[in-house]
Design brief:
The structure holds two protein chains of two kinds. Chain A is an alpha/beta fold. Chain A has a single domain, classed as Rossmann fold. In chain A, 42% of the residues lie in helices and 11% in strands. Chain A has ten helices and five strands; from the N terminus they run αααβααβαβααβαβα. In chain A, helix 6 links the parallel strand 2 and strand 3. The longest helix of chain A is centred in the N-terminal third of the chain and has 25 residues. Chain B folds into two domains: 166 residues, Thiamin diphosphate (ThDP)-binding fold, Pyr/PP domains (Rossmann fold, 3-Layer(aba) Sandwich), CATH 3.40.50; 129 residues, Rossmann fold (3-Layer(aba) Sandwich), CATH 3.40.50.920. By secondary structure, chain B is an alpha/beta fold. The longest helix of chain B has 15 residues. In chain B, helix 1 packs parallel to helix 8, helix 9 crosses helix 13 and helix 10 packs across helix 11. Helices cover 42% and strands 20% of the residues of chain B. Classes of the chains: A alpha/beta, B alpha/beta. At the A-B interface, helix 5 and helix 6 of A face helix 4 and helix 6 of B. The structure holds thiamine diphosphate and magnesium ion. Thiamine diphosphate binds next to helix 2 of chain A.
Chain lengths: 275, 313
């Protein structure tokens, strides 16, 4: 376990460094929400999911749907680290002809399970994958990451209802509960109220954790696997911009790339922290 | 009088046949299974039928996930909700991803009747046609419907099939062969051409009959595939007749009339009249009353042909 935790910490640091490098090189992109979910996604790709980068189409693979598609830099960094494509390709993010589109494109890049970017659609897709898995008698699991602003979309609640109705216990959702969206704090823009109660009322098993605590993330995944007959929502308290001091808790770093100087400061910090 | 069957009825039956042949076919509906006729599939294959309740966006999104995992989902609801309420889900999760989802939208057009404009889709062809990689079928009768449903399965990628509520004449026989993307030259003629789609093909034939009695020879082209459009057949009709009328139970903006105008404008301009819903919403009434009021009868088509013939001179 200790070894795994050390490995996850090292990977998360590497992935955060790539997020900074990629967005800086692209001159645009979404570092804040990529950094906030970095530990969750690292845990999934390096400690949880049954995937083989050599067989991205294996019908038995676990699936991850990045419903908050703007965190594409995070997904790309994780996929490259996991061996789905060469790391050097990360620097082509958002460039003409690149497989690394501004938002994930499943037809361009291996390992991307669903094209996303229009918020609110990923949970429906995840449910569909889970339904297909059940029909085919496969035991794969489906993970999906949602933003806290994103769940203002009505479709999310349609999908939440359906996942319970169809008893999709192979679905585990993570809410990146960083408290910020574009126009400001979620509570000011459109408050979510008692969000855990809302998911519970929709019939989900709800686990509340610190989204930067690997032990908690892994425990939550285990608890989700043991939960039968209903889907699980892991509400993960996170810090938007986590790991880069000047980005943390800052609304403005939602969709803005660091300048060269800021990037190098961030990289220095990301060397110091966690190590 | 030929037998009349609504295309949605034919769809319901075709689904059951398909379900027996192909275990990957799954059917999704949004609380309209009795109306869209997916209930027939539900009765036979309950384990492969999924109702999503009144939640069209989630239905489309879930279909995308099912397709991504190898299933062949058929999604049904009324055309107005399929294309309108769930447009972004179709665009983002189905078309852009080129996923193998078949959207079979019933109750298209004003022949929905008494439910009125909120339920009468007059812009769905325009919306679906604008999406890259989307195939758009508008069957004219029960036979074409069955063929279109089967063709949809053979196509790997998103397909939109536009179906109607009201019974319409069966135009084709058992021996009919359906080639996706190929228009059917249903009646030969050299003076003018009516290029029709969906339930307007039957009145187009009637119009040709009426005009034939006056010695005017009208060609009738049945365009069951709006996208990809049979450009060759459309251009040929213009070249060989020199005057074209389009006929659709849809807005003249963005539908078949627009598609034909685009093709002729770029290739072979001739006098053209688009018969369709003239940039207005529908209203309540009996289907036949509405077709009359909105100018979608054989008589209207016949006078449209005379207009283009006058301009030809
Ligand atoms: C349907 C839709 N509307 C608007 C946007 C633009 N947009 C991109 S990110 C975002 C805010 C998302 O906030 P949140 O889900 O909290 O993301 P995070 O904080 O995790 O980055 C918005 C409105 C979008 N991508 N999709
Ligand atoms: Mg947020």
């Amino acid at each position: 376990m200790r070894e795994l935790l050390l490995r996850l910490e090292a990977k998360a640091k590497e992935i955060r460094r790539y997020i900074v490098l990629m967005t800086a090189a692209a001159g645009s992109g979404h570092p804040g929400g990529s950094l906030s979910a970095a530990d969750i996604v690292t845990a999934l790709y390096f400690g949880v999911m049954r995937i083989d980068p050599k067989r991205p189409d294996d019908p038995n693979r676990d699936r991850f749907v990045l419903s908050k598609g703007h965190a594409a830099p995070l997904l790309y960094a994780a996929l490259a680290e996991r061996g789905f494509f060469p790391q050097r390709e990360l620097m082509t993010l958002r460039k003409l002809g690149s497989r690394l589109q501004g938002h994930p494109d499943m037809r361009k890049l291996p390992g991307v399970e669903m094209s996303t970017g229009s918020l609110g659609q990923g949970l429906s897709a995840a449910n569909g994958m889970a339904l297909a898995g059940r029909l085919d008698g496969r035991d794969y699991r489906v993970y999906v990451l949602l933003g806290d602003g994103e769940i203002q979309e009505g479709q999310v609640w349609e999908a939440a209802m359906a996942a319970t109705h169809y008893k999709l216990d192979s679905v585990t959702a993570f809410l990146d509960y960083n408290g910020l969206q574009i126009d400001g704090p979620v509570e000011e823009v459109m408050s979510l109220g008692r969000v855990a109660d809302k998911w519970r009322a929709f019939g989900w098993h709800v686990i509340e954790i610190d989204g930067h605590d690997f032990v908690a993330i892994l425990d939550a995944v285990r608890e989700a696997k043991e939960t039968k007959g209903k889907p699980t929502m892991v509400i993960a308290r996170t810090i938007k911009g986590k790991g880069v001091s000047f980005m943390e808790h800052q609304v403005d770093w939602h969709g803005k790339a660091p300048k060269a100087e800021q990037a190098s400061q961030a990289l220095v910090e990301l060397r110091r922290n966690f190590s | 009088m030929p037998e009349k069957i609504a295309t949605r009825e034919a769809y319901g039956r075709a689904l059951v046949e398909l379900g027996a042949e192909n275990r990957d076919v799954v059917v999704l509906d949004a609380d309209l299974a009795k109306s869209t006729k997916t209930i027939e599939f539900k009765k036979r294959f309950p384990e492969r039928f999924f109702d999503f309740g009144v939640a069209e966006q989630n239905m489309m999104g879930t279909a995308a996930g099912l397709a991504a995992a190898g299933k062949v989902p058929f999604c049904s609801t009324f055309a107005v909700f399929a294309s309108g309420r769930a447009f972004d889900q179709i665009r983002q999760s189905i078309a852009y991803t080129r996923l193998n989802v078949k959207i079979c939208a019933t109750h298209a057009g004003i022949t929905v009747g008494e439910d009125g404009s909120s339920h009468q889709s007059v812009e769905d062809i325009a919306l679906m046609r604008a999406l890259p990689d989307m195939t758009v079928f508008v069957p004219a009768d029960a036979v074409e419907t069955v063929c279109a449903v089967r063709a949809a399965v053979a196509i790997s990628g998103p397909v939109y099939i536009r179906l109607g509520r009201a019974p319409v004449p069966v135009l084709h026989g058992e021996d009919f062969v359906f080639h996706p993307g190929k228009a059917v030259l249903i009646k030969q003629g050299s003076d003018a051409a009516i290029i029709g789609t969906g339930i307007m093909v039957a009145p187009a034939l009637d119009a040709a009959e009426i005009l034939g009695q006056e010695g005017i020879k009208v060609r009738v082209l049945d365009v069951h595939t709006i996208k990809p459009l049979d450009v060759d057949a459309v251009v040929q009709a213009a070249q060989e007749t020199g005057a074209v009328v389009t006929a659709e139970e849809h807005s003249i903006i963005g539908g078949l009339g627009s598609a034909v105008a685009e093709v002729l404008g770029e290739n072979h301009p001739v006098p053209l009249k688009r018969v369709g819903i003239r940039d207005t919403f529908g209203e309540s009434g009996k289907p036949a009353e509405l077709l009359e009021k909105y100018g979608l009868t054989a008589q209207h088509l016949a006078s449209a042909v005379k207009q283009v013939l006058n301009r030809k001179k």
